[in-house]
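Table S2 (text version). Query chain:
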Amino acid sequence: MNFLNSKNSQYLLMLISAFLLSGNAISQNYPTKPIRLVVPFPPGGPTDIVARPLSLLLEECLKEQIVIENKGGAGGSIGADLVAKAAPDGYTLLMGTVGTNAINGSLYKQLPYDMTKDFTPIALVASAPVVIAVNSNDRIKTLAELIAEARAKPDSIAYGTAGNGTPGHLTGALFESVAQVKFKHIPYKGSAPAVTDLIGGQIPLVFDPIQSVLPHITSGKLRALAVTSKTRSPLLPNVPTVAELGYPQFESTAWWAVFAPAKLPDAITKKLRATTESVAQSPAFKERLGNLGVQPNTDFKESLANFQTSEIAKWARVVRDSGATID
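Corresponding structure-token output:
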């Protein structure tokens, strides 16, 4: 019996070794077939704008096709959940956003996935500031004037956004808290109608990502009072940051990052992370993003996991204070 047990033990060890070697070989050869990159929003939006040039450059580096699959709905939650439940083999990835992977856990009453436990963070690839903008004919010319008027008349200044729980709405709520003012939030069904009403004089103010308002600022129809990123936008170099104007800790950006399902093998994670970071830092990626206000991330000192943790905590406070919820 001891002999049999010994033989059985040896056989078991051989099976385990073969399994591990097979797993290592698969990881080292990865990828060997097309990779699906899920964009959890419809085609043509900001997430699509980031995902498509990223996928083309990843294809060149990984020598395999990257197939974009748009799965919109529920603020990105449908597409994110699809990836969360996919096999952790590196062949299904998520073009995650500040919404899908930092805000939605607090905003939605029943989110079908866990923003951290169900994903392997790969790399933060790009970000864009929110712009605080008024009509160019408005008497308000500076952020200080806006704050002064808001303090004198609480709840009287309406600001438009792309909708409840969007980066614009929550940035507005965060600004209210930090600047100790109170605006009146007007949620629209997207950025376009909010900006149209601002240009038409129906509302006096918007908090909206730079991509939506930039053409109208350039044409002179809108005036940017401030941007919400840590540093000035290269496309609006004369527009100060909120941090410069007396609120040094203030920062709010829309961001995009690549995530894989949880339990992705270490070798595949390392390869994907190194490749994605290399692409994000490349001149080719910056060039392909164009002049829409989205900036590639070139600083990888902080891990995506740590960045995501801090963003989840920040936006949870803002969602709670704003009272925003979505069923």
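Notes on Table S2: The first helix runs from residue 2 to 29. The chain has two domains: 27-128+254-322, 129-227.
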